[in-house]
């Protein structure tokens, strides 16, 4: 009898976390590693949010929380959805979880049966595929390219649908590409989905406010999709609260109740102090964190200029999030400093070992031609990192 389950043996390790661990290991050896691998803002959590957490401690919040979140937090989430997305939810349609990742796992756990197919426009966030497989679903990759800004077309969606298709999962703004679907582009997808009323959508909108272009559109805002969409969001990115671990969903009531039931047997309610702080965060207008968005845009323009100055990198201009996702196929088959580059994984490891810059291979995101570079780092670090990269690939 084997010790570990097939479930865990067949699961991939998160590539982003693995690269971060490797970078920490090299730092421990005294190497000056610049980390551009993690999707984590380098800002402090805003003062007004931290002060709310301190007040919650002083007010004696230390007990178990309701499984699906404090009522006051659910009210704040409802207000946020209406204010920012023009989506109307009731408290029974909201579930607060320990991060958006748990939201996704809850949804997969309550909706997928063995063999159900989930469409994943590529590139997709690194954990989507393994979460789907964990609950016996079948991830179906829909390939896109840098030439279409890594966005799936209506024709591609239609071609990927089969009788086994149960769901579609996507993020906008997208991790890892930074692509943002416009309202018109979403409408084209909706026109396909209305022909298949049994297909549900997970819309991951965690980067909603980190948007530099046309603004944010939610697929649940289309009347035909409201009852078939699970909108996932949280505070980790826009409010620089990654370690606070609070995510939430707005969903059809039956799905929300099922997620509440599953969470009740898995983790119960999310952290009490973090929830109290998030009430304050969400009740404030998004303009309170605009200074971070403005700085990310400056960094985006900076890193694009530097990357485009390196022969062999091909990058588009992302409209959201804080990543670029350049095509690096120019280097495949080449030998650099005695090391042969066969794929994006080789190239990403080469940059870590030779340039001392941590990035993430696009293989982890369903696109083997690219690497993900985070610009959630200081301008000085970005300039130095790209200088090092240019030196080791020239």
From TrEMBL:
PROSITE patterns reported in the protein's UniProt record: AA_TRANSFER_CLASS_1
GO biological process terms, semicolon-separated: amino acid metabolic process
Keyword Transferase in annotation: yes
Keyword set, alphabetical order: Aminotransferase, Pyridoxal phosphate, Transferase
Enzyme Commission (EC) number: 2.6.1.-
An MF annotation (GO) of this entry: pyridoxal phosphate binding
First-level EC class: transferase
InterPro entries documented for this protein: Aminotransferase_I/II_large, AspAT/PAT-like, NHTrfase_class1_PyrdxlP-BS, PyrdxlP-dep_Trfase, PyrdxlP-dep_Trfase_major, PyrdxlP-dep_Trfase_small
Residue ranges of every copy of the Aminotransferase class I/classII large domain listed in the record: 31-389
Annotated coiled-coil segments of the chain: none
Top-level taxonomic group: Bacteria
Family: Belongs to the class-I pyridoxal-phosphate-dependent aminotransferase family.
Descriptive protein name: Aminotransferase
Originating organism: Algibacter marinivivus
């Amino acid at each position: 009898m084997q010790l570990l389950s097939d479930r865990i043996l067949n699961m991939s390790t998160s590539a982003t976390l693995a690269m971060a661990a490797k970078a920490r290991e090299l730092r421990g050896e005294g190497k000056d590693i610049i980390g551009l691998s993690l999707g984590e803002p380098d800002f402090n959590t805003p003062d007004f949010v931290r002060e709310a957490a301190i007040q919650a401690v002083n007010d004696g919040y230390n007990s178990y929380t309701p499984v699906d979140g404090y009522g006051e937090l659910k009210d704040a989430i409802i207000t946020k959805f209406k204010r920012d997305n023009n989506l109307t939810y009731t408290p029974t349609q909201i579930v607060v979880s320990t991060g958006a990742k748990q939201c996704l796992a809850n949804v997969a756990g309550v909706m997928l049966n063995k063999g159900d197919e989930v469409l994943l426009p590529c590139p997709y966030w690194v954990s989507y595929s393994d979460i789907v497989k964990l609950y016996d679903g079948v991830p179906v990759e829909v390939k896109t390219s840098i030439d279409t800004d890594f966005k799936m077309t209506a024709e591609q969606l239609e071609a990927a649908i089969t009788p086994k298709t149960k769901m579609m999962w996507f993020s906008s703004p997208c991790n890892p590409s930074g692509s943002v679907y416009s309202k018109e582009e979403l409408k084209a997808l909706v026109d396909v989905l209305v022909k298949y009323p049994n297909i549900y959508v997970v819309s991951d909108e965690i980067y909603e406010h980190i948007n530099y272009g046309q603004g944010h559109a939610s697929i649940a805002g289309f009347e035909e999709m409201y009852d078939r969409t699970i909108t996932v969001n949280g505070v980790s990115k826009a409010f620089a609260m990654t370690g606070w671990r609070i995510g939430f969903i707005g969903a059809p009531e039956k799905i929300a109740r099922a997620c509440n039931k599953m969470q009740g047997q898995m983790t119960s309610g999310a952290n009490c102090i973090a929830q109290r702080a998030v009430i304050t965060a969400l009740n404030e207008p998004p303009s309170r964190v605009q200074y971070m968005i403005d700085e990310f845009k400056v960094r985006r323009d900076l890193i694009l200029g530097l990357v485009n100055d390196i022969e062999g990198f091909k990058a588009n201009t992302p409209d959201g999030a804080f990543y670029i996702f350049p095509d690096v196929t120019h280097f495949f088959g080449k030998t650099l400093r005695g090391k042969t580059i066969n794929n994006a994984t080789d190239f990403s490891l080469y940059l870590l070992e030779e340039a001392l810059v941590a990035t993430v291979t696009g293989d982890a995101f369903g696109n083997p031609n690219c690497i993900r570079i985070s610009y959630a780092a200081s301008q000085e670090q970005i300039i130095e990192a790209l200088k090092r990269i240019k030196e080791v690939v020239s």
